[in-house]
């Protein structure tokens, strides 16, 4: 998020909350760049308890515990604080009574541009590009004037409650500050300055967060997202030297995730979630359509790609990544290049580095292979060529099955299926075993950009998909199966009928994981739009290459930028 100087930007728009009463759907103004959900789900309950202390104010060591918590965390919880339970409940119910008023009523007490009290959006709104899913009511001292506007005959209950609560807060603040400041041995004058007095400042803020149709996009983003062009440096291309690395560098240490969330899935649940479809079964087409609509991802077996070739691609990939860092860097991707050895292309969009090195092939890889193995490049090239041909065939068959039920035109079908001018990328991914897998990310959360992806996990789990309401789910590696997933272009072409599945790759401590991804898309110069079969297109029409450059620049936001 860009942060602005507040004065440049403060307008009424930063004060009036959206009309939560009448809103239908989820507005672009409130859609923040998608963030990695896992980063938010940090702790198990046990961990949380040990992290932020809950302190019994009536206990004899309260003062010591409070001092420690202030130093360590700057935050703690208190119980036995002496504030009557009924009053706490009353404040909540009076707050709910206020926010339950109509938008029209609440706007009668809207905060003014330079005012401090009343109804409105968070005061930090002008500093962010996106709006927050929030409305608030700010009280300083008496709230009788506003309350009389809201409830001309029934304001007293609200005011009495808020007054009583403010008095209780003042007492509690007084006690807490005594306990916090005494051990610092401050002067009496300093103590008087800090504790509540007739001229201290106090603010009572009631916050309301209505239920939200799209919570994963409405919460405050954790990762700063950067415009790639501002930031692309060599540092985003050269992977860490996995050969000589010792320990686990801070550059690769992501905020901790909740491991338990991933472990709770039973094998059954995992299996039932993402279908494994037998391509020679008579109902394959129906199952594929269902999977595209429901998950945007499925696995296929009996796909016709020779098992030996699949194994050869894996062993040739391992041969490449087993070269020394020095050798691999001879074919390092250039800053504006698309092929060669390097870090994930999504690296510039994240503050932390990924536990990953990759090798990207588009068409022939003979030039790079000759640099790596001057006399033995043929085996590598032949394998990658044969595999790309097989992927093209499989993509062709899959797209026929996926698009036929949509009843697309022949022209649209020709646009989608592989042809001499379509785009295809073969991506070899390497995730070396990692000393600290719970803090590392192999490939950060993303959607694939083109139409369809075929992924081979090469026998080791690691791929996870994000399912709204369920969180991150492992996609188990199934012997002989490929994972097929919908990319942004198919999401757009299907008029959002098929989700572009958000996914990531995780790493492990014991095994060096390899995966092979094949991405297929229509010609760069061709026009992209929802199929003409859809009466109400929900995306704008633009050139494929225009979409890809939006993705390259705005990443998480590219899809929302092309919404009609
Ligand atoms: O390695 C994996 O499992 C996922 C790879 C991936 O998502 C990609 O290459 O786009
Ligand atoms: Fe991907």
TrEMBL record:
Keywords: Dioxygenase, Iron, Metal-binding, Oxidoreductase. Pathway: Hormone biosynthesis; Plant hormone biosynthesis; gibberellin biosynthesis. Its EC number is 1.14.11.15. The keyword Oxidoreductase applies. SUPFAM superfamilies: Clavaminate synthase-like. The keyword Repeat does not apply. Belongs to the iron/ascorbate-dependent oxidoreductase family. GA3OX subfamily. This is gibberellin 3beta-dioxygenase. The lineage of its organism: Eukaryota, Viridiplantae, Streptophyta, Embryophyta, Tracheophyta.
